[in-house]
Design goal:
heterodimer, A: 315 residues, alpha/beta, 16 strands, 28% strand, B: 256 residues, Rossmann fold, two-stranded antiparallel sheet, 26% helix, binds flavin-adenine dinucleotide, binds adenosine monophosphate
């Protein structure tokens, strides 16, 4: 068993999704190798050396990898994938964009969003918006999969520790020419002082019931009181109350915080798919029959315009 | 410019699915089936390009059982010009035709039809794979722009500038055509097909091809060994007031 984890990072910092993917990799075996491909990524690679269970960190530095374009990275990864039994990446926009391209190049049928590893070739993953859990046995020689980050705990790193466990190896990527047909133009990243949605211990989400972008401040105030991240239903995002990367659900982000507070959200299956693994779910909705109450540990039937400011005030 | 849109027939998104007793799959008999929502968005986008004079022809392709031709008719009612049905005896949701096989079959159609652009859904709402577009791009060695919320094709139809929805916000990439684009929800809002257009769609050309004739090995690589309901959440309670809610969260649940 030799397992390759493709690290997700910003060129300067590792993303937490990588640490949960490493935990999944360790369930497969001890020989875990992490590939850090990017531009000027030595700091990222160093931060991984002390991660529990990582044997080796491979660094592939190239300007062609700066924006993680699959057109530039997939062929490179597919080349040396052949010496591994498993290729893993987080099931984030990064991993979902890249890994299927790698998988096709090595003629392996990948598994998306793996939530459990039962053995070297047997994996569980949710299908039908999480309304069924399928167990698959892979017959491919190299198993390729993205890992649902909420299903595994992050591996521990002893940041700043001197007893580094993993060895570091540089791979020559100087010959990688950027694909001529795709060009990265720009990025527009939302900056927020709040915790990241997929990693936050508490999430407060607003839905269509919130009514307007101005009213969405009610959700933000409650979130800030709780040190929480802000989420939204698709209806709230579509209506422009919240940015698109706040969307929680089947086709948005998957979250599993200790506490999820759904405000003015009806509880469509596509929304539940993204949050029903939260430890404690609170629903605030004025409709006592809203389906969200079926998954809520604590349901409050109330007008959100009364209940939310009251709650914010009393915390 | 010619656009190909691969479309899939899936259980309608409003249906609460039931798992078969023998765990072999999801019950599909007498269940409402529809065009995969992301593919509907893809068809709408292609048809808008045609209406703007950017595209000359929009071809929709589906791989599935003979009845899957209904999603081709639905797509043609939105405005696609013709349809290709590739028949397969395999189930297309789970434990049958897999994304890699779909990508290989689509590749053979793309090589034959030579489109300038392929627009497809980012994800099927049954298998939730989110793989096929990226795989097709790999097999063709074409550019890929996944999770698109905006597509601008330049006047000379040589490149497309695509805004992509990513975790932290948005990315913008430029792809030389031909390219593969996969759609996200906010790309557009598909129209309702009008009755005259539904009638007209019935007359549009629909070609049927047996998947076996395309020289692609579609045997599954993944064996589905179980299909179960997700773990049920224990029933919760209703609280009467904000005070009670805060008290429960503090003392019972201990999460704040
Ligand atoms: C392919 C596909 C993918 C999808 N993916 C997602 C996804 O990833 N995430 C997602 O969320 N949705 C997704 N959806 C959409 C989903 O089906 C629902 O339409 C959406 O979740 C509804 O959002 P909502 O609950 O905010 O709005 P609504 O269903 O309109 O609910 C609003 C709720 O607010 C309550 N309310 C109104 N006013 C008040 C008030 N003053 N006080 C208290 N309560 C109030 C109402 O009682 C109601 O229950 C998807 C749909 C499709 C077809
Ligand atoms: N059987 C099929 N026939 C036609 N297109 C398909 C089929 N399966 C998947 N696709 C296309 O691939 C996209 C992504 O599907 P998936 O990788 O299964 O999530 C869908 O939105 C469709 O555009």
């Amino acid at each position: 068993m030799s397992i390759l984890v493709i690290a997700e990072h910003t060129n300067t910092a590792l993303r937490p999704s990588t640490l949960t993917t490493i935990t999944a990799a360790r369930k497969l075996g001890d020989d875990v190798v992490v590939l850090v491909a990017g531009k000027n990524v030595s700091a990222v690679a160093d931060s991984l050396l002390a991660s529990a269970g990582v044997q080796k960190v491979l660094v592939a530095d190239s300007p062609a990898f700066e924006h993680h374009l699959p057109e530039n990275m997939a062929g490179f990864i597919a080349e040396f994938a052949k010496s591994f039994t498993h290729i893993l990446a987080p099931a984030t926009a990064f991993g979902k964009n890249l890994l299927p391209r790698v998988s096709a190049l090595i003629d392996s049928q990948m598994l998306s969003d793996v939530t459990d590893i039962l053995g070297p070739d047997t994996f569980k993953r949710p299908v039908y918006a999480g309304n069924a859990i399928a167990t698959f046995q892979s017959t491919d020689a190299i198993k390729v999969m993205t890992i649902r980050t909420t299903a595994f705990d992050p591996v521990t790193t002893t940041e700043g520790s001197t007893d580094k466990n993993a060895s570091l190896e540089h791979i020559d990527a100087s010959g990688i020419a950027p694909a001529p047909h795709t060009q990265f133009l720009s990025s527009e990243l939302t900056t927020s002082a709040r915790p990241e949605l997929t990693a936050a211990p508490v999430v407060v989400s607003g839905g269509r019931g919130v009514g307007s972008a101005e009213n969405f401040a009610l959700i933000e105030h409650l979130a800030d009181k709780l040190g929480a991240a802000v989420g939204a239903s698709r209806a709230a995002v579509d209506a422009g109350y919240a940015p698109n990367d706040c969307q929680v659900g089947q086709t948005g982000k998957i979250v599993a915080p200790s506490l999820y507070i759904a405000v003015g959200i009806s509880g469509a299956i596509q929304h539940l798919a993204g949050m029903k693994d939260s430890k404690v779910i609170v629903a605030i909705n004025k409709d006592p029959d809203a389906p969200i109450f079926q998954v809520a540990d604590y349901g409050l039937v109330a007008d959100l315009f009364d209940a939310v400011p009251e709650m914010t005030g009393k915390l | 410019m010619k656009i190909i849109v691969p479309v899939k027939r899936v259980v309608d998104y409003n249906v609460k699915i039931r798992i078969k007793a023998d765990q072999s799959g999801v019950e599909l008999t007498n269940v409402k089936m529809s065009l995969n929502p992301f593919d509907e968005i893809a068809v709408e986008e292609a048809v808008r390009m045609k209406e703007k004079g950017l595209a000359k022809e929009v071809v929709v392709v589906t791989i599935g059982p003979a009845v899957a031709q209904d999603v081709l008719r639905t797509s043609m009612a939105i405005g696609a010009d013709r349809g290709i049905l590739i028949t397969t005896p395999l189930p297309t949701d789970l434990g049958g035709l897999e994304p890699l096989s779909v990508a290989k079959l689509l590749k053979s159609i793309v090589l034959k039809e030579q489109p300038n652009l392929v627009i497809m859904g980012k994800q099927s709402i049954d298998d939730d794979s989110n793989q096929t577009g990226q795989m097709l791009a790999a097999l063709l060695n074409w550019p890929q722009a996944t999770f698109a919320s905006k597509i601008d094709v330049n006047d000379s139809k040589t490149t497309a500038t695509i805004t992509r929805e990513i975790d932290g916000g948005l990315d913008v990439v430029a792809c030389a055509l031909p390219a593969i684009v996969t759609t996200d929800l906010r790309l557009n809002t598909p129209r309702y097909a009008s009755l005259p257009n539904i009638m007209k769609a019935k007359q549009k050309p629909l070609e049927t091809i047996d998947s076996g004739s395309l020289g692609v090995d579609t045997s599954p690589r993944l064996k589905m060994v179980g299909l179960t309901d997700p773990p049920k959440r224990a029933g919760g309670i209703k609280v009467a007031s904000v005070d009670e809610l805060i008290a429960k969260l503090k003392t019972d649940a201990k999460v704040i």
